[in-house]
Amino acid sequence: MTRPVLLAAALAAAPVFAGEPTTWPQWRGPTRDGVFTGPAWPDRLTDASLQKLWRADDLGPSYSGPIVSADSVFTTATVDKKVEVVTAFDRATGKQKWQAKWDGSLTVPFFAARNGSWVRSTPALDGDTLYVAGIRDVLVALDTASGKERWRLDFVKEYGTSPPDFGFVCSPLVAPDGVYVQAGGGLAKVDKATGKVKWRSLTDGGGMMGSAFSSPVLAKLDGRDQLLVQTRTKMAGVDPADGRVLWSRTIPAFRGMNILTPQPVAPDGVFTSTYEGTTQVFRVTANSEGFAARDGWSVKYEGHMTSPVVVGGHAYLLGRDRRLACFDLAAGKEAWRTEERFSDYWSLIANRDKLLGLDSRGTLFLVKANPREFEPLGSTKVAASETWAHLAAAGDDLFVRDLTGLTVYRWAR
């Protein structure tokens, strides 16, 4: 049961399509790169910078980031370790509009128990349809007005693959011609209206070492639209039309922990960073045989779970060592790394020359996107429980999903 409580009133490659700065419709925002183009943020962040608008409590745990439309906020949860729940709230008041529920539970391996056995994937919003990934490799399409189920695709039943040991982690990518997900032991393009699979690619069987931790993005590299897909073992460019693999490169990582979302960088690069691996850029170019991905540059810096944001030709990233780092993408070198160590994870959003980072301990940081040095601009506590779900920003509002509830804040102008 929820109890909304009303309180006091580049260098990045161009995405194929974009949303509005007043909404947050998918993983990492409208352009799926953590870049926010709404109102400018203040120059300092203090405890007085944010006004709490409302909070919904007792939602159940989730690592799924909130999705924001013009008038609604959507969040997911795993309740009583057996039921998956999607809840829609009125964006202005926090009043619950509807809930959708289905049986769905999975216990992760014992060595990953601290990461929890609950829903992980962030949904995707496309007009009047919300696409939600259940932890047992199930993709569900819901009507945003009523919560009514339009269709359901169970990859395990459909293809006989092993259930993902760590759950359905990939966040759906919605494009004009379909929904793309890394599920069912591979990459799939799904018809938005029917839930039928149009094609599958990069199949690996799922299970312990096959189910992806990353999420795909769309980019144009050397004049060609392609899906950038990071599996547990490789990075690949895939033709969105037919699933044909245009190029691929092996990405070594401990236990296949290729987690972060790959970042396209102009004019022909792909940035990534891996656990017990390197931070690197591949250069993707067309040739007589199709496409080739050659080494651009690499440095010894281990990524982990935080996906990078790019501002002014520099990538900002929190690594396995829990230190924030800045990389000069043109020079191919580390510009700086903090002495301070933070928590294990930040969800990062960039807005003009500033970064917001929500750490996994419920603290929000404001940082200047300064390529010369680390320049903190303040911090404030925004949640009492852990915050592994990605921060969302829409208009003047920030949406924070912690392990027990959802809080909406507004910048105090």
Automatic annotation (TrEMBL):
<feature type="domain" description="Pyrrolo-quinoline quinone repeat">
    <location>
        <begin position="84"/>
        <end position="338"/>
    </location>
</feature>
<keyword id="KW-0732">Signal</keyword>
<dbReference type="Pfam" id="PF13360">
    <property type="entry name" value="PQQ_2"/>
</dbReference>
<protein>
    <submittedName>
        <fullName>Outer membrane protein assembly factor BamB</fullName>
    </submittedName>
</protein>
<dbReference type="InterPro" id="IPR015943">
    <property type="entry name" value="WD40/YVTN_repeat-like_dom_sf"/>
</dbReference>
<dbReference type="InterPro" id="IPR002372">
    <property type="entry name" value="PQQ_rpt_dom"/>
</dbReference>
<feature type="signal peptide">
    <location>
        <begin position="1"/>
        <end position="18"/>
    </location>
</feature>
<dbReference type="InterPro" id="IPR018391">
    <property type="entry name" value="PQQ_b-propeller_rpt"/>
</dbReference>
<dbReference type="InterPro" id="IPR011047">
    <property type="entry name" value="Quinoprotein_ADH-like_sf"/>
</dbReference>
